[in-house]
Amino acid sequence: MSTDGVRCMMMRGGTSKGAYFLAEDLPSDSAERDDLILRIMGSPDPRQIDGIGGADPLTSKVAVIWRSADDATDVDYLFLQVMVDRAVVTDRQNCGNLLAGVGPFAVERGLVPATGAETSVRIKMINTDSTARATFPTPGGMPDYSGDTAIDGVPGTAAEIRIEFTDTAGSSTGALLPTGNATDVVDGVTVTCVDNGMPSVLIAATDLGVTGAESPEALQDDVELNRRLAAIRLQAAELMGMGDVSSTTVPKMVLLAAPTDGGVISTRSFLPVKVHSSIGVLGALTVAAGVSIDGAVGNDLAALPAPGEQFRIEHPTGHFDVVIEMDGRDVRSSGNIRTARKLFDGTVFPR
């Protein structure tokens, strides 16, 4: 395999970038697959210099796709987060940014036929055992990545990709509120543990002695803040039924503050140490669900929109708009607008 190479498509999905593979082009044994992926991406190495990884958690990602056996969906999508400086490949979380590229990839690879000027692909997200529908332009029978839709965190514009979730965006912990409570006290700090697709721990920034308006670099360099967050994360994960998460990237830690630029809530999302330059798709949906719950952390800080209106999440480089419909502590529906673009399609040669 290292001699012949592996078929691969590199795509930007939302504000992330990753390598997309057909499952049939990878080993069926997960250990062999993960070893191959590490060699393809160039991990472990802080620069990933001997692979195609981008030396950042947001660009060291893999999507594995295959045709669904279930008539209810068209394709299955497995997300794999590849650690940059450790020999670890994990499926403990989902990725809503790479999800934006799954539909176009499925059409490009012939898994799903284009249906006209626009095509919808029903996607089963294996990581969270949930489903989504992605709709995107396919004039001439193939995805068209050009368009005038802009998303913060990505230069220029591209074609709109509408992603809809029928209820929640999927919960890997099995519940929107994994602890059963709107708030818990962890290590002396009030938190909300929530999972609408991305297990997260919401904390008011001021409860940790910061404003929530700091730059990602300033927060990453705050040694005491990171020590507190690490301790809270480990304890909160136990309460969420996630066990020992010391070697995983979830749950995410999200600092919340009142909005300052016309949004609903301001965020700083930890990955779990590096601070996100924006916020992930499922992270945004999870924050929106969390702060919509009466009594939850951030509910008193949020300028909640009217039902049906866009829910604007502020982040370090702009904002992220989602739509979410809540019924008390239940998510009835949610969705968002993303863009994606094919970067290259060919053969990758692993180390």
From TrEMBL:
Top class in the EC scheme: isomerase
Keywords of the record: Isomerase
One Gene Ontology molecular-function label: isomerase activity
Top-level taxon of origin: Bacteria
EC number: 5.3.2.8
InterPro entries named among the record's database cross-references: OMA_tautomer-like, PrpF-like
Xref: PANTHER family: ACONITATE ISOMERASE-RELATED, ISOMERASE YBHH-RELATED
NCBIfam families tied to this protein: OMA_tautomer
Assigned protein family: Belongs to the PrpF family.
Full protein name: 4-oxalomesaconate tautomerase
Source organism per UniProt: Naasia lichenicola
Lineage: Bacteria, Bacillati, Actinomycetota, Actinomycetes, Micrococcales
